[in-house]
Amino acid sequence: MAAALWRVALAAALAALAVGAPVEEALATDDECAAGADCGLEALQHRKEVKVGVAQTEAPAISHEALLQAMAADGVPEEHLEEARAELAATAKLSAAEIEARSNGTCTTWTGGTCTISSCAASRGATECSAFRCVCRSGFCEQNGVCRFNTHRATQQYAGAWGAPTTGSWGMPGGSSWGAPAPTATAGWGAAWGAPSPSAGWGAPSAWGTPGTVGSTSSGRAGNRDTGGTCMLGDCDRSRGDTHCSHNTGFKCMCRKGSRVVRGRCVFR
Q1: pLDDT tens sequence across 51-102
Q2: Residues of the signal sequence (predicted)?
Q3: Which of 14, 116, 136, 202 would you call most buried, defined as having the most Cβ atoms within 10 angstroms of its Cβ?
Q4: DSSP assignment letter at 75
């Protein structure tokens, strides 16, 4: 019995030595550990800090084509998209060290220009007016008063900005958070909106109109009479039908009572 226990203890000791050997060999080859074994913990902590620093500076992965599509969807003008294409092509030829060096630079966005009286000058590049200051759009950084495309900043801002549509971030695709996929007599557009019942001010079901359209209820409450036009600078366009517009409507071209919107035009029921 004693011999059996001794063999088990010996096997456990040999296994522990086998596991620890690679760690000791790795620390022995490290310059910080050349003076002795006391540096082992400090070396391991240093390696962890380096990895964390790299993770913080690395931009999320996104293809150049996907990045350009995201910028176009964000309203970046074509002339500035061309600048981005050229810079992305040049970045693809750089080494990893050169790309990392570029990503470590600072990025300022105010060009020094203002837009209090007029728009930002085109010579300042891809700008937008914010708080009466001409600042660089997303993906661009200020250089000598001009906004220039910055690959690292653009990647950080456009890659994964919305996040994946998971239940953890967007919630379950059901009535509790996204709303029901279609209006029903019992659930409306989801539990948050409630059922479209007469007691809720929707009027009788006969006044709801044909499914898939919007209009006004029999009680005169507007389902949606906004045509999408404005009268801020002039009268509403005649193509929108019988509309009225004033400061009371927020300078919006609204359909008159008794009519509804169909593809941006007022038509009588």
Answers
A1: 333 334 455 578 889 899 989 988 899 999 999 999 999 988 888 888 877 7
A2: 1-20
A3: 136
A4: T
